[in-house]
């Protein structure tokens, strides 16, 4: 390597030239002042603190480490299913198998951190509430609570620490961390020395230190934010054959250097910054910590900094030249000049004569800088300069980081007198990505957390590497490449391109997907034959069409034209193709882009979970194919369990379903635990538990009265138009008397469990592509109830009841976005055996019906609205015979049974109108509106309100 003097004769620093320095000096490579653990923009306090208030990751409902919106467990836990292909037969828990006792089971880790979350949630506020002037003994309770938390950690992780370090938990993990922060739990006064930032930093180190022992790659919050998981990279090739240029400090982490094919530069100076950046791009999925988006990409690196940690524009120009000469189609550059989002001297680099003809086919990704500045005015720029992207940072909530520079109203112009042409504003080239508290390599084989736009830029660079791997010809077309990234971003801030967020947030999955489904040229491959398909024949496909695609093992081969070139997509329409491959026009074996399946099905207008699918109709549900060696199609689904008001919640808080179908998908079996009425009902228009509730819905309330426990269903396609289904469902409910008075508990505690079961058989017939009719028969058996009603006297309904019901329905797909469904049920109920309360001759005749109208894309592609009108279960006619023991002979006092008959029909017919509206608001945000009107006839004693309205706003971190 040339010496610093020989390579860089210009004096350092040369301020008129625009100095670029590392973590000190006036020109930062976006590191120093954004130190994750100290400095003016430390993420542990101040305006970017994510540890308390509305964005606290360590307690409350928005904790990103656990809880309902946790990106480490809850919403991104499916990542672990995606990660497994990278290990193959090697257990992700360490050793030959999870049961070897070395590493705690992954599911138990979730429970462990949930418990520690509660402990820390009580320790931290109390710790912070103690006055700095208080007596040291005031910290004794904090020390005691910390000891308990550490003992709990030792019980769970002790064997792992012993295996990994050869030391006890105290010596191998806890004590070194306590010493680092100057904490002596036997001297409570040492706790007074830690400010709020250091306290939270201590807990992060506790969390990360233990998770580094878990033997698994780490799921970080940025992954869900940019819609990335390891399976997506695997399908796209993980960056194979792509060369990324890294203009940064020297990388010394041995896990990363093996992917760096060539390195040179002014010196070997390093402060860990280069390794942090590289780890987000190329870290392997090997169970060692950080996961990179493009782990199979090759990196060529150049260090423009000398031993003093400074550089000038000449060094940077030499670095760019070296990187492009070594075939880098992407160059990541996390350096610049403070106060500038894009310094004008970049123009001098790109127009340097030594680079002429060498950089036209390269995309340059530049970090925006960390001074919180908005650039204004004109930037002199040569129109022939290469394509570039400037990347800013957002916090876990999707809000621009306080330290991130912004595009402002700056514009690229060819002369000082030129006006800003359309598309030349800096905001048109500006995109944001997560950049706060990101888990990265510490350049020593471990991990650390850092913040800065330097950590946002490599996420963009690695996403481009996936594009260049899947579609190699894009590596020579930087215009198409940058436009794909910009056009697939999710809008943030003010609608459209704005001066703060530019085009919006990086969306990795969207960038690898068609930008506009309506603009695709489609070709369908069926049984090996390729035919072009008009869009009109695809959009609005019926359930039967989807079934046929599944049976035929079909997939669509689609082309997207973009900026003089194209992209091709292999979209599987059958679970038989999961994990398979097809030969692309380029002659490569390309994996089917399974991540496009749900998006494509949504586009053709079928997003429901009807037709016997194993899925659940829930905002928070998830379904995934299950690999198996048996040659069948298996799908596993789970969703939050529907709560039964007034009854104890038993078992897991989630309902599950497993569907097994034959290769032709003509026959399928579904088994699960939860809302069985939805699956047994087999009705395309009614996919909510409330549709089958006897108090609120009219689709088939007989099934609803036996829904909530185990169920099983089967369906068989007799022909392309006719399908039969049958199934059983059951539930057992125990009344919740907690919080009641002693008298109420004694009275209600004697009521037996409400146990019921139902069998259901149905047939559906497709009259036309848009119209399907169905009919079904249901038998409901209730052990100790009559249509859901029980008595405090066990003898009243000791024999239970049986109800036989008939259901007819219709579903009409008016358009691809508008669907109308109707269903009605008539039932007749008889009492079983001898009991105090019996049903009169002829039984009880009940009726119910419901009509639902669903409209997708009401205002745009991100919302949906549903209107329903129903008559819940209504008693049309029938009498109740009530038998009691009375004196039947007043003269002798003889006792006997006396039966009284009561006509209970026609008392409280009700109609219910309901509206549901849901809308996505961008990154991990959604709003839902709900309204219900209950219209009553006659007199009713129920306490349900006549009108209900509500709204829900959900934000994930």
TrEMBL record:
<keyword id="KW-0732">Signal</keyword>
<dbReference type="InterPro" id="IPR034061">
    <property type="entry name" value="Peptidases_S8_Autotransporter"/>
</dbReference>
<comment type="similarity">
    <text>Belongs to the peptidase S8 family.</text>
</comment>
<keyword id="KW-0720">Serine protease</keyword>
<protein>
    <submittedName>
        <fullName>S8 family serine peptidase</fullName>
    </submittedName>
</protein>
<dbReference type="Pfam" id="PF00082">
    <property type="entry name" value="Peptidase_S8"/>
</dbReference>
<dbReference type="InterPro" id="IPR000209">
    <property type="entry name" value="Peptidase_S8/S53_dom"/>
</dbReference>
<feature type="active site" description="Charge relay system">
    <location>
        <position position="253"/>
    </location>
</feature>
<dbReference type="InterPro" id="IPR023828">
    <property type="entry name" value="Peptidase_S8_Ser-AS"/>
</dbReference>
<keyword id="KW-0378">Hydrolase</keyword>
<keyword id="KW-0645">Protease</keyword>
<feature type="active site" description="Charge relay system">
    <location>
        <position position="454"/>
    </location>
</feature>
<dbReference type="InterPro" id="IPR050131">
    <property type="entry name" value="Peptidase_S8_subtilisin-like"/>
</dbReference>
<feature type="domain" description="Peptidase S8/S53">
    <location>
        <begin position="239"/>
        <end position="504"/>
    </location>
</feature>
<feature type="active site" description="Charge relay system">
    <location>
        <position position="273"/>
    </location>
</feature>
